Amino acid sequence: MSLFSLVNLVLLFFILPCIFFFHPFILVLILCLWFYLFNRYVSWEFVNITTDRIVGFWLFLVSEIIVFATLLFTCLWFQDYYSKPIAHAYGAPMVESWLLISSSFFMTSYRGLINTKWCHLFLNWSIIFSFFFMITAVLEVMSSGVSSLFNPHAAACYMTIGLHFIHVVIGTVGLTQLDYYFSFDVVRRYSWMIVVYWHFVDYVWLVVFTIVYLLV
To answer: What main location does UniProt list (predicted)?
Structure first.
């Protein structure tokens, strides 16, 4: 039995409350614990990926859609006259949107030029833009005048952007693995999963941007 789901329970049930109550030190400890468990029990499972794992990948994306839809619905449900946006929509969030859309474009170019010398150039640009996104997102939260404890709407918004931020981090780690495309057969065979996952993260952000920032 795969331990991947069990290890991810640590991420789901411990890291989200840390984001909600904004305890950075505990958050770092939980991330370190998850990273240790992942490398200790899970990482080598992906070396033996079989065909049925492809179905699991699509089911994983469906489950992700359900999670994000639940959080976004919560944002809309608790939105009222007193709700305040975490940041102005046409400030840092707009820059973040541009960075992710550009990164998605670079990944499309990478996939189309996978067997040429230009592929790594587009891949590296995509990784660079993802890092700029993460830096901008951290600065946005640090400079925000809205606390996660301000009201349920603010808490739901923080949990939504926090969860998406985690997905960007994981996606960026996946993108770095594509640098070994010509070195490992498992990376070549399933590189499309990383590309699809990254596009998924980008598209989810557009919905998050609309509901969390534009509609408030």
So the answer is: membrane
